[in-house]
């Protein structure tokens, strides 16, 4: 077992664990193993000794050779040491030189790399410095181009340095600052363009006015003046309105935002700001444009200048303004402009200011046409203003007419010599053939009011035609409108002044003269229409019906004539001095009645110049008033007693009036027309004086009866008055039989009349 273990140990070189375990686990195996191991060592020592003895001589020889080699080795070692020291010295200097060379080479490489990097960085730094200077100089568009070059070309070349990262992080801030600065420039531009818009519009209006007033003579004159006075001189002033504005800030901002990729946002922002400015422009700065022409000029110039600049940008703004946007903004604005002008012009009461404003609006419209902008609804506004202008003129001429009427004497014009006569004939178109043969002094049938009014109407036509010029109306339309305005002036304004004149009491002579004057003015309208046709170059047209222009004024005058006659009748009848208890009549009409009828005859004779219609109305009013007053006198409750003599005296007065009425004092009356006014009074008097009660009581209530116009009340009233008078006269006398019978009949009739009166009630 021990031998096997030792053999196993000798045969195994690396793992002896199992062998040692078997030695230590066996009984007594440890001592045996140690003993066997000693024997094995001794055996190997014997074998080594045998092997050494076998090779001993060779070993001695080897030792001897080794000793010889030793000396040589020492020599060689000395030589090698010497060489080594020499090499070491040489190599040390060489190494130091090599290290120096390596260091120099490394420095050289570093310098080359540094130069190369510096060559890459230098354009970046130069460009960055240039960018800073451009931003400081507010050259934003070149700065933006430099920024793009810096960001996309130079920075990628350089590399990831910290200062490059600093520049890279600074680029968005610079871009934003450029954008903010450009927007600030845009706001400054918008503020500046708003201030310059009135100047632009004023220059455009002036150029349009010069163009409209241009003629061949003016062109030649201006050319000569420019050649003589401006030879060798250059006109450095702006030639077009839009040249007053520097658009370069706007174009720079547009280019900047195009580079930034925000062109659409910029366009929308610009349009929104301009539309907001348009709303501000449409609000008048002065508030009241109707106060002066300067405010109107400033307002129209500001509006016009705004859209002239936008129209210029339409062609040069690279899409900044579109045609649709411009037309949409203008459509909104022109409606507001028309409304503002309409509101302010409706408050104007000065025709001169109206003419100036109309001229400005016409210039405004013509300038809009030059720039291709629609003009609707401004022409319609001018037509509305024409109506208001007519009203303003009429109001002014109302004052003129009132002055003429207040200072008028309403007496026929009387001239003392040929010069005065020619002056009237030159002023008013009158056919004076009859007056030509008469000696001086000559008297015209009309008063001084007629030529004065005629002249003022011509002045009105001149003033109206001033407004209508330049409106694009043809001669026929202008003439028709002028005729209409002149007719309105006479039929409304002058007639209104006459009506106001009639509100105060006027003498009959003046009323007659006013009616005559209106007839001559109506006849002169044809000459006014001819005057209008000559000025406008149109065909003569007569639109006013004859006798209808002043009919309302004549009606008022005729009514006042009738009123005056009625008042005069009342004055005569107020002078009556009837003795209602008169025993016997005088046998003739009362004096106040004859005086009244004589006065009426004279008045009707003085009315021969009036139309038959007016004279008929006057005599109707007078006779009607006479009849009603005489009837009132007869039935007046204040007169309680009435004698037969007084009744017959009143009958004589009525007969006198009936004779006046039957004589037809004026032509144009129906036969017996005036007698109808006295019919009821005549039947009442005939009934009482004829004592025909049987016929009356028989025909009561029957139409066409002999006393159909007599009512039971009036008959009873009159009988009671007669009864009272008879009772008073017979108190102390004895009545005869026939008087007693008459008294009984009176009582019976009175009783029946009261019954009929009660039935009617």
UniProtKB/TrEMBL annotation:
Source organism, top-level taxon: Eukaryota
InterPro entries for the chain: EXOC6/Sec15, EXOC6/Sec15_C, EXOC6/Sec15_C_dom1, EXOC6_Sec15_N, EXOC6PINT-1/Sec15/Tip20_C_dom2
Keywords: Coiled coil, Exocytosis, Transport
Keyword Coiled coil attached: yes
Iron among keywords: no
Residue ranges of domain Exocyst complex component EXOC6/Sec15 N-terminal in the record: 36-204
Entry-linked Gene3D superfamilies: Dsl1p vesicle tethering complex, Tip20p subunit, domain D, Exocyst complex subunit Sec15 C-terminal domain, N-terminal subdomain
Residues of the Exocyst complex subunit EXOC6/Sec15 C-terminal domain: 378-721
Pfam families assigned to the protein according to its UniProt record, in alphabetical order: EXOC6_Sec15_N (PF20651), Sec15_C (PF04091)
PANTHER family: EXOCYST COMPLEX COMPONENT 6, SEC15
Family: Belongs to the SEC15 family.
Protein's name according to its UniProt entry: Exocyst complex component
Taxonomic lineage from the root: Eukaryota, Metazoa, Ecdysozoa, Arthropoda, Hexapoda
